[in-house]
Amino acid sequence: MKKVMLVGAVGAGKTSLIHALNNNESQADKTSSIYFHDGAIDTPGEYAQIPRFYSALLVTAVESEMVIVVQDATQSRAVLPPGFAGMFTRPVIGVVTKTDLPSANRDKAVACLREAGVKQPVFFVSALTGEGLKELADYLAEGGCKGE
Ligand SMILES: Nc1nc2c(ncn2[C@@H]2O[C@H](COP(=O)(O)OP(=O)(O)OP(=O)(O)O)[C@@H](O)[C@H]2O)c(=O)[nH]1
Ligand SMILES: [Mg+2]
């Protein structure tokens, strides 16, 4: 699997997604610092929401092969600034999480990702039900760069 760095708002589901991709059933704790898991770099949501942390994200992204911008499907307003994804020197994909929840709005989530500068592709997943995880894992296993 490609080594990925996950970024996105506080509570978007980054750590839960890493656990789900690794078949780790433990509950995700709040991420308080940049954390290297096997094959993935987890980041605290604050690093994406507070511009003075951007330099840390940029430096760390160099350790990855691809950046995943994680968007909560139930989050109705854009939290990341316009063009956020454009600052990375790695290919960037989008992942919409929490698709299992009744208030999930996929179109709105994609619009948030596009506004944040994420181009193709976008995957839809649920860490709870496992929806979409295989498609994402397959894409990362193939080293997919389609759409970038
Ligand atoms: N229903 C549902 N809940 C989810 C899903 N993914 C994450 N959650 C819940 O959302 C909350 C936040 O998830 P985390 O994985 O800790 O979010 P995070 O993006 O790592 O947050 P920070 O570490 O604060 O940046 C937790 O209560 C998770 O159980 C999902 O796919 N479905
Ligand atoms: Mg986390």
Automatic annotation (TrEMBL):
InterPro entries: EutP_PduV, P-loop_NTPase. It holds the Pfam family PduV-EutP. The keyword 4Fe-4S does not apply. One of its GO terms (biological process) is biogenic amine metabolic process. It comes from the Bacteria. GO terms for molecular function: ATP binding. CDD domains: Ras_like_GTPase. Keywords: Nucleotide-binding. NCBIfam families: EutP. Belongs to the EutP/PduV family. This is Ethanolamine utilization protein EutP.
